[in-house]
Amino acid sequence: MPAITRHPRPGAPRYLEDFKVGDLTETSGFAVTRDMILSFAEQYDPQPMHLDETAARDTVFGELVGSGWQTLAVTMRLLLDARLLGGTPIVGAELRDIRFHAPMRPGDVLRARAEVIAIRPSKSRPDRGFMDMRVTTTNSEGVTLVTQRWSLVVPRRPDFQKVAL
Fold this sequence. Notes:
The protein has 165 residues and is of the alpha+beta class. It has helices at 34-44, 48-51, 53-56, 68-81, and strands at residues 4-5, 24-26, 30-31, 91-100, 109-121, 128-138, 144-155.
């Protein structure tokens, strides 16, 4: 069973060669408040189910819920805080297969889990490669809110010719 990484040494870069298929990163929790939901919605997704508790009752959700885009943004923050790539910035090449399973609600504590599902060196840029991850975000009850697949650009070690993937 692969080891679960929670907080690699902050600031230390991680390279493509540091990962293997099956590696897992699990984050700590992030508490979502009503005010966070309202603030995000006012700026980025001004719809009734995100802005107004009374109006939200007349939507398919029947209550105030966070934007799916906010759930994705919180997921990104969780994985940054967990030092997914150590001191190496997270650079996305592709985001796909986004599925919203359940809404984020005020009071939820979100957690994210990222599993490495593929690693491949770049064919055109030998100093980097791609790492595909399956990312799942859950709430405090363990309910899956969103699943997605990320393809990240990850640098190779400066001496990568000597290291096999």
